[in-house]
Amino acid sequence: GLALFWVTRIGRGSSHFHQTIFLDFPEYDGKDRVHDLNAKNYKSVMRKYDVMVVYYHDHPASNRLALLCEHVCVLQLVAQVLDEFEDEDIGVGLIDAKHDKAVAKKLGLDESDSIFIFIDDEVIEYDGELAADTLVEFIYDVLEDPVEIIDNNRELKGFENIEEDIKLVGYFKSHKSEHFEAFADAAEEFHPHIKFFATFNAKVARELELKLNEVDFYEPFIEDPVVIPGKPYSEKELVKFIEANDRPTLRKLQPHNMYEIWEDDIDGEHIIAFAEESDPDGYEFLEILKKVAEDNTDNPDLSIVWIDPDDFPLLLPHWEKTFDIDLDHPQIGVVEADDVSSILVFR
C-alpha cells in the first residue's frame, strides 16, 4: 500500500523522462537488449553476465500494457548505458509473474513488481523509482567495494560530508586483520544501502577519535556517532547492532530508496516533513528537525521522513492536492502509510 506514491508508480517512465531526467543520458538507439527470461533460457542468459538486473513484473492486464511498455523502455535505456560499462558484463532481463513464476521461485524472488540485482551469489533488491538515471546510479553503487578506505584528509572530508545515509567507520591494523575481515563481511550484508568506511591510518583514526578495532555508527543528520560496544566485534555482533539501529530518527526520502522507507512505518504512520533545503525557510526548518532528531535519537517510536520537494517535481501537484498544502513553504504532518487519504494532521 503505497498510496502516497501512486503518481510515481503509474507515471514513472512517462514521456517526461526524455526531456528532464536524463539530461546526461544518450537517446535510446532502438536496439533490443532486454532479455525475456523463461524456464528454457534463464540459466544460459544469466551465465553470460557478471551481473544481472531482473525486473520481476506482474502480468499486465490489457489496460496496463502501455505502462509495462514504458517500464521496458526505461530498462532498454538502462541496458544501453550499462552495455558501455567496461569493467563488468551487465545484463537486463524480465520475468513475468504469471507465465514464469517457477523461474522466479528458483531464483528466490518472492515479491513481484520489483527489481533485483544478481551479483556474486548475492541478490539485492532495488526499492527505488523506476527511472533510468536512478537505477543506473544504484547499480554503480552495487559494483563498488562494500568498504571504502579513508587514507587522507581529502577522503576524510568526503566521509564527513555524507549526512543523508547511515554510515559506519572502523579503524583496523590492515586489510589482513581478522577484525577488518569481520567488518567487511558485515558490510556485504547491507551493501549498498548502508555505507561502510575503514581506515588503517593512525592520523585519520585520531581525527575520528577511533581506537584500534573500534567502529563508530552514525545516524543520518546526527553529528556525534555511537561507539558500537564490545570491540573487537564478530561479523554477527556487527550485523545484530546494525539491525537493531537501522531505523534512523530522521530520514530523507530519495528516489533510490522511496519504497523501502515508505514501507518501514511505525504503527502504520509516518511523520512527514516537506522542506526545500535550497530555500532559507526550508533550511531553517530542516535545522530544527535535525535538532529534534538529535534530542530524540533514543526514542524508537519517533521516525520523521523528510521530503525535499525539489527531488520529486512530478509529484508536487499530487501532494499539494492530496494534503491541501502549499509546498512553497515548509510543512509537517502525520499520514497513514497505506491510506494517505486519512491524514491525521498537517500544519
UniProtKB/TrEMBL annotation:
Q: Which UniProt keywords apply?
A: Calcium, Glycoprotein, Muscle protein, Sarcoplasmic reticulum, Signal
Which GO molecular function entries does the Swiss-Prot or TrEMBL record give? calcium ion binding
Q: Which GO terms describe its cellular component?
A: sarcoplasmic reticulum lumen; Z disc
The record's SUPFAM superfamilies line, in alphabetical order, gives: Thioredoxin-like (SSF52833)
**Where would you find this protein in the cell?**
Sarcoplasmic reticulum lumen
Keyword presence, Calcium? yes
Against Pfam families, the record matches this protein to: Calsequestrin (PF01216)
Q: What is its main location?
A: other
Any one GO biological process:
regulation of skeletal muscle contraction by regulation of release of sequestered calcium ion
Provide the family line.
Belongs to the calsequestrin family.
Q: Main role? A: Calsequestrin is a high-capacity, moderate affinity, calcium-binding protein and thus acts as an internal calcium store in muscle.
PANTHER family the record matches: CALSEQUESTRIN, CALSEQUESTRIN-1
Protein's recorded name: Calsequestrin
- Gene name per UniProt: casq1a
